[in-house]
C-alpha cells in the first residue's frame, strides 16, 4: 500500500514538472502555430511581459519572436 502511494506521488511530481516546462515551451506558447510568437501569445505565458520587453527581444523587428529570439528572452528572464 505504501509503495503504491509513493509511486503515485512520483508520477504526480513528474507530470507537474512536465506541464510547467511545456507551458513555456516555444511550440506551446505559439498557440496559432505560425512559427512566431506574437506579443499576445507571449503574454499568455508571461503575463508580466511588457511591450517594451517584447520589442527588445524581437531583434529583427519582425513583430514576432522566432524560436531563437524567444529562447534568448527566456534565458534573460530573471524570474524564470
Ligand atoms: Ca504565433
Ligand atoms: Ca523577430
UniProtKB/TrEMBL annotation:
- What InterPro entries has UniProt attached to this entry? EF-hand-dom_pair, EF_Hand_1_Ca_BS, EF_hand_dom
Database matches in PROSITE patterns: EF_HAND_1, EF_HAND_2
Q: Give the EF-hand domain ranges.
A: 45-80
Name of this protein: EF hand
Please give the organism.
Devosia limi DSM 17137
* The UniProt record lists the keyword Signal: yes
The terms under GO molecular function for this entry are: calcium ion binding
Which domain of life does the UniProt lineage start with?
A: Bacteria
The answer to whether UniProt assigns keyword Signal to this entry is yes
Where is the signal peptide, in residue numbers? 1-22
- Keywords, in A-Z order: Signal
